Amino acid sequence: MIGAIIGDIVGSRFEFNNARRADFELFTKESTYTDDTICTVAIADAAMNGWNYADALLDWCRRYPHPKGAYGASFAAWLASEKPRPYYSFGNGAAMRVSAIGWLYGSMLETLEAAKASAEVTHDHPQGIQGAQATAALVFLLRHGGTKEQARELIEKVYGQHIPPYRPFSNPFTEECGATVLTAASCFLSSQNFEDAIRKAILVGGDSDTIGAVTGAFAEAYYGIPEFIQKQALARLEDEMLDVIRQFNFQIGREA
Questions:
Q1: Which end of the chain lies in a sparser environment, N or C, as judged by fewer CB atoms within 10 Å?
Q2: Mind listing the pLDDT tens digit for each residue in 201-249?
Q3: CA distance linking residue 82 with residue 59, whole number of Å
Q4: How far apart are the C-alpha atoms of 103 and 92, rounded to whole Å?
Q5: Is residue 215 within 8 Å of 200, Cβ to Cβ?
Q6: Are 69 and 173 in contact (CB under 8 A)?
Q7: Domain range for residue 62?
Q8: Is residue 85 a part of any domain in this protein?
Q9: How many domains does the chain have?
Q10: Which of 144, 145, 141, 218 lies closest to 184 in space, CA to CA?
Q11: CA distance to 53, 91, 95, 97, 221, per residue, from 114 (Å)
């Protein structure tokens, strides 16, 4: 979860102006959370406290109606609706917000069921649900000591295709869920450590904050997070977001 937030914040200033150099600063005064972090916190809050996922998303996102980069048009319409209904989306929002679920459940089956429930309140297209489940399942696998080879096998089995080799500056902008998960998996699998994974996610191009969020979720579960990076990111969050993160750390048995 925190890895996803870090990837979002680092990627926030590159979403519409992709990085072109490997030595970019991870954090600047322009680095901030986007809708990806807000939705990630909402899903974590729902999973820990028994909220309906739709109610949690509506509550959190309406508190922050104008995040950097804005909400996607369809999701924004959902937020504004008097009676929000799923809109058959296969966008990458289902994958970018789900990472906490990979940590909070005790079995793969429970993880998959919760990921599906978190997605289908908006992203009820099979590809949207698939992306959420693939992301949560890989986080679950990696936090339980899964290897990179097992990670590759899981994602390639889900999508029925090979994960593309990592190539910087190669990724076109797309919000399609499957493409985002495959790209994030490529960034993670080619990385050497947490920071390297985040840098690869930003340098690959495309929807930088969301690719950063999904890659960061994988990298956190496999490598952990350097303290100096975590501090820089958490300093940019609102107090009520930090409260959810503290509860999350307590619930998974992690030192705050």
A1: C
A2: 999 999 999 999 999 999 999 999 999 999 999 999 999 999 999 999 9
A3: 13
A4: 20
A5: yes
A6: no
A7: 2-16+29-251
A8: yes
A9: 1
A10: 218
A11: 10, 18, 13, 12, 18
